[in-house]
Amino acid sequence: MAAPRLRVLAAVVALAAAGCGAFEFQEATVDAIQLGFRNGSLTSTALVRFYLDQIARLNPLLRAVIEVNPDALAQAARADAERQASGGRCAAGLHGVPVLLKDNIATRDRLNTTAGSLALLGSVVPRDAGVVARLRRAGAVILGKANPSEWSNFRPVESGWSARGGQTLNPYVLSASPCGSSAGPGVAAAANMAAVTLGSETDGSILCPSSSNSVVGIKPTVGLSSRSGVIPITPRQDTIGPMCRTVSDAVHVLDAIVGYDKLDAEATGAASKFIPRGGYTQFLKMDGLRGKRIGAPAVFFQGYNDFQTAVYEKHLNTMREHGATVIKDLDIATNFTDLNAQETLLMIAEFKISLNAYLSDLLRSPVRSLSDVIAFNNAHPVEERLKDFGQPDLIAAEETNGIGARERAAIRRLKEISANGLEKLMKEHQLDAIVAPNSDASSVLAVGGYPGIAVPAGYDKEGVPFAISFGGLRGYEPRLIEMAYAFEQATKVRRPPTFKR
Ligand SMILES: *[C@@H]1O[C@H](CO)[C@@H](O)[C@H](O)[C@H]1NC(C)=O
Ligand SMILES: *[C@@H]1O[C@H](CO)[C@@H](O)[C@H](O)[C@H]1NC(C)=O
Ligand SMILES: *[C@@H]1O[C@H](CO)[C@@H](O)[C@H](O)[C@H]1NC(C)=O
């Protein structure tokens, strides 16, 4: 007789826990977290404990995290004390919010910074990366390091594998690719293993794993966020950006990381003129699609099955219903074979220069040059899976010899490709953005240093997530955020992962 009553009681307790007063950790947003801090239902310490539990529970399967920060709880306690002392006034921005960093972003603390490679284990960085210094000033908690595809694109970018972290899995469909190279941040955000995360992109490394793991990824204009202290590929294309469960969360992170850095002076100096007074949250507008002109280049929408094509068609109509003018079947007039050839030629030369500069700046390191890394991999073929991946790109990079005539010609050619391609298209049609499925526009955005935002767009018949990306010219973040946010709010596609086998 008692059993049903107990069940009723349990239901009432559960209801109370969910609805009135208790903090809901799953899918918590930055806004909810700050509200929870202010109304006393949440502490940073409780939040960090939740994510550490999630990591302990899920990481043996997903391998999204390489290291947790042994100081995370102490940082949370400090944030809680600061908030108390300030009477709640510092419950804003990312204060007390746990952030997970891709493992190519340097932290001068007990965490290692290795880009997933065993070669860099034991290296000591001279200082925090520029973006980390900003996060610390904002009072964020550094939760740990997320698993990248090792050496970013210089292993198969889609692999999501690193020698230190192992194989990252997609939390929706375990057999599906998580994409890379920011696989760990994408998966960790998707599976509620962190409040927010930071990834990095050279060509597709934020947009692709965001698309594959149903999270929002912002690939900022190159130079908007500092690259100092980030294990590099090329300063012409590298950019650091948020990967989060919502557009709003990603925008909170963007606000925290953008700005001038004297250690990345040229790029951050040039891009800082784009940063709007009052930050980016003012562009989180429900009617952000109204009056926008959006181009859909035909080349990006080819090769999708009927189901996904129909979903994208529906989304373009949703944008129209919310006041945007969507122009389909545009010709972006870009020779992608040429683009990719020039991009690669230049990237390998710039990678050697930038990686050698990064390695020589380390206080201590087992490897001091690209050739040391190649030798290390040859000496550890099993751990570094040389049979599966080889290291052809590292070797090709090592064979380059600085920026010569060929590289200068490639720089000129890429400028022409951007000028005659995306820039011309956007001017001719007075576009605020182009849209493309997933990360399909990533190369066009990469070579011009242009920004892009990926937003969840659906799940295929197996349950694998896919996305739509908005891209624009340098400094177009305000309008891209308006469109991405309005689209997200109109469609609400994201749902938590299903862990399907
Ligand atoms: C405090 O805010 C959170 C949202 O962050 C909400 O879920 C909770 O119910 C609120 N608690 C109280 C006591 O108002
Ligand atoms: C950093 O790497 C060393 C091995 O060199 C390891 O002992 C240490 O635990 C790592 N740090 C963290 C925070 O995991
Ligand atoms: C595209 O570029 C490639 C490589 O530069 C070249 O061989 C090809 O002819 C070009 N295609 C067109 C249609 O111009």
TrEMBL record:
SUPFAM superfamilies: Amidase signature (AS) enzymes (SSF75304)
InterPro entries: Amidase_dom, AS_sf
Residue stretches making up the Amidase domain: 47-438
Highest taxon above the source species: Eukaryota
Keywords linked to the UniProt accession: Signal
Signal sequence segment: 1-22
Keyword Signal applies: yes
Keyword ATP-binding: no
The name this protein goes by in its record: Amidase domain-containing protein
Protein's gene: LOC101758859
